[in-house]
Amino acid sequence: DFLFFWGAVFLVTTTLVALFKKENKELIPAKEETKGITDTYRLLFSIIKMPAVLTFCLLILTSKVGFSAADAVTGLKLVEEGVPKEHLALLAVPMVPLQIILPLVISKYTAGPQPLNTFYKAMPFRLLLGLEFAVLVWWAPKVKHEGGFPLYYYAVVVLSYALHQVTLYSMYVAIMAFNAKVSDPLIGGTYMTLLNTVSNLGGNWPSTVALWLVDPLTVKECAGAQGHACGTAEAAEV
Questions:
Q1: What pTM was computed for the model?
Q2: The domain containing residue 198 runs over which residues?
């Protein structure tokens, strides 16, 4: 029902935009720098070859390694420790207004000449929250009882997630502001798409590696089966 409702809203609003929104024909279109796919990739390659862009790409490709495990694995480990999936999903609801407000607040601090300062300042706090997430997972079985988890545990989880969102959006908005500031206006779309793609990749590949490393780095003991190893998923299943 939820997906059906928002699917209908999406179709109606985009149809209304298509029907009633008209292009301003009085404006003279700017000269396009690229004519097709080949020219676009040639342009992208020339951008990537610039030393400053290479250095920046290296920065944003590796900047999220430190908190990839906490971001990718915490929710899964909480479920593994018995926190119901539906409760975790409900905890995401209070985050929605926060996610709407945060970019508006943070943009005031990233509008100056050095937007990346906000990125650097938020990083140590986000790393510390990764440790706090580890404590949350460790704490889960300690407070669990027959009726589930106490209300105060959920309150701590919500507060932790809220603080995490503040650091996450501080870094995200700062990177977006920096990309917008340094992109050449003549090829702004191509330039920003390249930097944003590298930024997204910098968040995705460490999370993938972190998820892949969960099993090899997890120490397991077999209870009631002496001499039986359970280091792999198949052996643990047996």
A1: 0.77
A2: 47-213
* Helix axes 68-80 and 188-217, enclosed angle (nearest 10): 50
* Direct distance between the N- and C-terminal alpha carbons of the chain, in angstroms, rounded to an integer: 40
What pLDDT score does 31 carry?
A: 56
Question: How many domains are contained in the chain?
Answer: 1
Task: Assess if residue 18 is contained within a domain.
Answer: no
Handedness of CA 204, 210, 212, 214 (dihedral sign): negative
d(CA 39, CA 31): 14
Q: Are 152 and 86 within 8 A, CB to CB? A: no
H helices present in the chain, as ranges: 2-20, 37-48, 51-62, 68-80, 85-91, 95-110, 116-143, 151-182, 188-217, 233-237
Please check whether residue 8 lies inside any domain of the structure. Answer: no
What's residue 187's pLDDT? 73
Task: Judge whether 17 lies within some domain.
Answer: no
3-state secondary structure 46-93: HHHCCHHHHHHHHHHHHCCHHHHHHHHHHHHHHHHCCCCHHHHHHHCC
Residue 146, in any domain of the structure: yes
Q: Which pLDDT does position 192 carry in this prediction?
A: 85
In the chain, which stretches have pLDDT less than 70? Answer: 26-35, 188, 231
Residue with tokens 């290296």: 58
User: CA separation (Å) from 168 to 6, 68, 236?
Assistant: 26, 12, 35
